[in-house]
């Protein structure tokens, strides 16, 4: 099925946005923390044509559920399914005062779904960039403008889809650059490119997709976020960004470990960035390991498959390994010397088979460029 077959004309263009891997700084983007994602090569691609009315026609080659309606039909909870991520972006841009009209859209390719690699943000951001260009909003060409687009994508996800996620994934998709990770300060929204080129150091970031489908909207994510907000309120602070470990120790027993994760994770991001800026990439492994331990024990968002992926990778020679993304399934990452990739991948697959888990998908990822028009 082509755009022409569906809509009877050619698209005005094609836009693509990448998925992301978060190197470190997990579950801190809604606590005004620091995170360090990078864009991956896998992209979501949308073909789009502007319409001269207010109708939206949305189709995907990757997922069921075509949607057709008016912009006025879009709002909290509507449309459901993947179409909400696209329609929500137009809704959010309009609510922010931008003049956008209807579109015909076909999703022709996608970042792997449910793998914890932010396929939803990639969909939002590719659509946002298309809409920006087709309606002449003038946002896609500058960093400040892209931050505005990212905010609309976050609003689509929070307000229309109803997933209370932070802004890391959208910032990564729109602002990341090849050969770098993106240091994102979610307190003031600023971002800085940090040199991150594993291949130059003889290393590979392996992504181990457990193929246990992760769902953000299932309640656990919202519970963690609520606990973190409650902890900040109990300390009389706007967020846990500035909290110290001494202050955290005064919290109630159910909140303390959650808050401790936030505070220690932000510190680990700072240390990681210091090492990367100093060209000492090979030394970040223990920080990745500590991040995973904190997510597994203090934050309790890991899973048996993610834990096994990390331990098996370490035993087979990874410099460090951790879950990445929201958790409860999805993917883990391992920083691996290039000469160990094949043996390590075999070892992880064997460990999964022994445990009776589904065979994981394993691939290397290079820090790639952010969203762009492709034709
Ligand atoms: C998901 C959310 C992000 C972030 C991560 C955890 O990917 O979309 O905003 O909170 O989980 O770091």
TrEMBL record:
Domain Galactokinase N-terminal: 2-49
Single Gene Ontology MF annotation: galactokinase activity
Keywords: ATP-binding, Carbohydrate metabolism, Galactose metabolism, Kinase, Nucleotide-binding, Transferase
One protein family per Pfam: GalKase_gal_bdg
Domain GHMP kinase N-terminal stretches: 85-175
Transmembrane regions listed in the UniProt entry: none
Enzyme Commission code(s) on record: 2.7.1.6
Top-level taxon in the UniProt lineage: Bacteria
Domain GHMP kinase C-terminal stretches: 276-353
Family: Belongs to the GHMP kinase family. GalK subfamily.
NCBIfam families per record: gal_kin
Protein name: Galactokinase
Organism from which the protein derives: Pseudonocardia aurantiaca
Gene name of the encoded protein: galK
